[in-house]
Amino acid sequence: MKNMKLTMNNTQLLLNHKQNHVYIKIAICLLVIWFTYHFYSSASIQFSSVIVADGDHKLPPPLPPANPTLFDQFPVNNTGIPQGSLECDIFTGEWVRDQAGPRYTNNSCNTIEHHQNCMTNGRPDSDYIYWRWSPFGCELPAFDAKLFLHYMRNKSMAVIRFPGIMCSHCFAFSHRLVEEAIEVYHDEEYRSKRWFFGSYNFTLSVIWSPFLLKADIFEDNDGHSSGAIELHLDELDSVWVNEFTNFNYIMISGGKWFLKTAVYYENNTLIGCHSCNKENVTEIAFNYAYRKAIRAVLDFITKSVMNTSGPNNQSSEPKKRAQFKDSQKPKLEGFCVYTFFRTTTPDHFENGEWNTGGYCNRTGPFKSGEVNMRDVDKTMRDVELEEFENAKELMNGSVLRLFDTTRLSLLRPDGHPGPYRAFHPFDGKDRNAKVQNDCLHWCLPGPIDSWNDLMMNLLLQG
């Protein structure tokens, strides 16, 4: 009887111990949740409504760590700012098989633009949608829309530049959210758009500004030009500058439009041109204009941060940078815009360019060492990293983050529409018929969906 009583007491103690252990675990979980909520609440900024996105998908199970490999002849990110998670550079890795496939389809998303709707347009292969980006040394969770929306309630986000690539990001982003978006604005040519998610008071915008600078463009929606672009290298595009304070988060980038024939102006005076072949007009390499544009953009953003970030930046002497007209000087007292600066994405035209018969018919990703960047992409990337480095020296680096999509994009020649930018391009034609190929923009669903996973990681890492 005494032994039985002792056994019962021991059992009761054991149960109490286990119960206390459970309570401790619950308390720790609640504490972690509170810290997370407190961190993002303290980072919240009041704004005027402007952007939107939603998704409801569980995180995938943990994956085994990838084996590191080297990227031959590839300029690495040496800006000195840790990108992504604290454990690794999330932008260095490889594409691995993902049997789960995309989290949306061309049938479940009705906002995919026709030139990116590769499945509807008759692309016969589908292997390109069964890959995901896997960083070396850490796991990259899939985009969690509910978690994202929890922290983005009452906020706004904009994607600024040429929507051919960046709008892909917006569409891929909005497809994965948990509520259908309402389009509340579009410009006359449907290049700039805005969606609103009422349940979260969250707005997502695309602003079309192909040069980020003031530009007079003389071409139609199919890219047919009637004259050289007139580009003002010392004046930012008011289309996005005037909206800048409407956003809490911005994704901004340069791009391939700087390779087009253009006439350059400074102080409203002609200084030269790129590929214009005009007599008595100085030929200027495109990277001169590209550097001027990136520098002016980052300088505008940096000065807006320095005006609002308090004493941490008051002790340093600002470097001499781009000069703005009075109407474009940042006036952002009490407001701060968190900016992702996206690097260039190489195209994959082979045996020609878009207008000389180039094509992209590969059906799987490259492995490291199988492809090198072209000189033009290296030049653009060098400019981006150098100007980003200069900009982050003027600030804490906490509100300007590098979104380095170059490497992961370089490895995906299979992700472009190719001939399937048009609806069933070979109907009534021979399979070898010459048709227009698009090897710059991306199929949706497709590789660009991984950008949302990367952005989510950067947001969670603060």
From TrEMBL:
<dbReference type="GO" id="GO:0005794">
    <property type="term" value="C:Golgi apparatus"/>
</dbReference>
<dbReference type="GO" id="GO:0016020">
    <property type="term" value="C:membrane"/>
</dbReference>
<keyword id="KW-1133">Transmembrane helix</keyword>
<dbReference type="InterPro" id="IPR026057">
    <property type="entry name" value="TBL_C"/>
</dbReference>
<feature type="region of interest" description="Disordered">
    <location>
        <begin position="308"/>
        <end position="327"/>
    </location>
</feature>
<keyword id="KW-0735">Signal-anchor</keyword>
<comment type="similarity">
    <text>Belongs to the PC-esterase family. TBL subfamily.</text>
</comment>
<keyword id="KW-0472">Membrane</keyword>
<dbReference type="Pfam" id="PF14416">
    <property type="entry name" value="PMR5N"/>
</dbReference>
<feature type="compositionally biased region" description="Basic and acidic residues">
    <location>
        <begin position="317"/>
        <end position="327"/>
    </location>
</feature>
<dbReference type="InterPro" id="IPR025846">
    <property type="entry name" value="TBL_N"/>
</dbReference>
<keyword id="KW-0812">Transmembrane</keyword>
<feature type="transmembrane region" description="Helical">
    <location>
        <begin position="21"/>
        <end position="40"/>
    </location>
</feature>
<feature type="domain" description="Trichome birefringence-like C-terminal">
    <location>
        <begin position="140"/>
        <end position="457"/>
    </location>
</feature>
<protein>
    <submittedName>
        <fullName>PMR5 domain, PC-Esterase, protein trichome birefringence-like 25/26</fullName>
    </submittedName>
</protein>
<dbReference type="InterPro" id="IPR029962">
    <property type="entry name" value="TBL"/>
</dbReference>
<dbReference type="Pfam" id="PF13839">
    <property type="entry name" value="PC-Esterase"/>
</dbReference>
<dbReference type="GO" id="GO:0016413">
    <property type="term" value="F:O-acetyltransferase activity"/>
</dbReference>
<feature type="domain" description="Trichome birefringence-like N-terminal">
    <location>
        <begin position="87"/>
        <end position="139"/>
    </location>
</feature>
